[in-house]
């Protein structure tokens, strides 16, 4: 019945959708048939200020002008009440939630010694607490329908590191941990959760990314991958994707094959560790573990006590290591 990637009869919530990447996600979802909750508190780049309903309202108007359906939500993702209110809005207006894109974000860049606790907390509360606050009520609704697509927005700063962003990097990488566990909880309920690490010129990055690349760094390049991950066709869960400038790839946490030291009875010395450090650190033949059970299974296999069975594989990205 459906041609291509469509979201007819589906309801999508996009946080921080008043501008930048979130606005583009909201517009494209609506163009493809979704009813959209455009959430944005309309604050400054560092999350300060009174907030404003204007950015969210403008995107709702844009969607309506295209013949789509949308409502605005001005609540902050940074409190549990805000998260509940955002999802309540979706249910009141459209009756359900199928898609949640956790996209709202702020920056408070400082090198660690200059970073005040308030700057740490503000970034954690929007990115990390925000994902919990909105995803939890959304997940409850998705579970009722046995279907859901959730996106968390991580960052190359978290995956790889960036000077002056310990708060932001920690929050962004924490979202990968959030995804890793929630993907397992979502399996039985038809709920898939994936992470996107965008690179795009927006208000957030206009003085961070090289200005001469601004034409190349169109945020529009990120949208198609996010649409795919939000779609019924999405075959993966628990995956991380980089997207920018038309370049798309997957990042993953892999585990090296390692070595077993000793007989499992005697504790190896620090000197033995030093002597074997190259082999311990080797990533040759490294692979992903789909869950802690898989990782523990690999460990037990390595020490010669295959007690745990590798759990059933789900998602085509699963690679299990065989010793
Ligand atoms: P942006 O600044 O253009 O948009 C972020 C939006 O989130 C703003 O409209 C802001 O008002 C809203 N927002 C902030 N705090 C909020 C809160 N508590 N509740 C509701 N809305 C809130 O930034 P951009 O670039 O579009 O960023 C979107 C996401 O992508 C963020 O999570 C960001 O960390 C992430 N990201 C962006 C990158 C880039 O290159 N632009 C790189 C890596 C990650």
UniProtKB/TrEMBL annotation:
Residues of the Ketoreductase domain: 10-201
Compartments reported by the entry: Peroxisome
Regions annotated as coiled coil: none
Protein name, per record: Ketoreductase domain-containing protein
Family the UniProt entry places it in: Belongs to the short-chain dehydrogenases/reductases (SDR) family.
Species in which this protein is naturally found: Desulfomonile tiedjei (strain ATCC 49306 / DSM 6799 / DCB-1)
Stretch of the intact protein here: 288 to 610 of 708
């Amino acid at each position: 019945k459906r041609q291509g990637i469509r979201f007819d009869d589906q309801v999508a919530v996009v946080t921080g959708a008043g501008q930048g990447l979130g606005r583009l996600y909201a517009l494209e979802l609506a163009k493809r048939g979704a009813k959209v909750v455009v959430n944005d508190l309309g604050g400054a780049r560092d999350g300060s200020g009174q907030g404003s309903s204007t950015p969210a309202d403008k995107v709702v108007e844009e969607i309506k002008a295209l013949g789509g359906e949308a409502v605005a939500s001005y609540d902050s993702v940074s409190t549990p009440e805000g998260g509940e209110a955002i999802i309540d809005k979706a249910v009141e207006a459209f009756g359900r939630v199928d898609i949640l894109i956790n996209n709202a974000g702020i920056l408070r860049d400082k090198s660690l010694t200059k970073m005040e606790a308030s700057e740490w907390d503000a970034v954690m509360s929007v990115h990390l607490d925000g994902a919990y606050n909105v995803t939890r009520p959304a997940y409850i609704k998705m579970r009722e329908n046995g279907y859901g697509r959730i996106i968390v927005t991580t960052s190359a700063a978290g995956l790889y590191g960036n000077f002056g962003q310990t708060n932001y990097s920690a929050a962004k990488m924490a979202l990968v941990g959030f995804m890793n566990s929630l993907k397992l909880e979502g399996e039985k309920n038809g709920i898939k959760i994936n992470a996107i690490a965008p690179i795009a010129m927006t208000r957030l990055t206009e003085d961070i990314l090289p200005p001469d690349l601004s034409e190349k760094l169109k945020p529009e390049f990120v949208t198609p991958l996010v649409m795919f991950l939000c779609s019924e066709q999405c075959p993966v869960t628990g995956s991380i994707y980089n997207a920018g400038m038309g370049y798309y790839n997957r990042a993953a946490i892999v585990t090296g094959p390692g070595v077993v030291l000793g007989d499992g009875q005697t504790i190896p010395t620090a000197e033995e560790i030093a002597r074997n450090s190259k082999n311990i650190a080797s990533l040759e033949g490294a692979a992903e573990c789909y869950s802690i059970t898989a990782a523990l299974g690999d460990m037990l296999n390595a020490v010669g006590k295959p007690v745990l069975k590798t759990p059933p594989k789900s998602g085509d990205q699963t690679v299990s290591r065989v010793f």
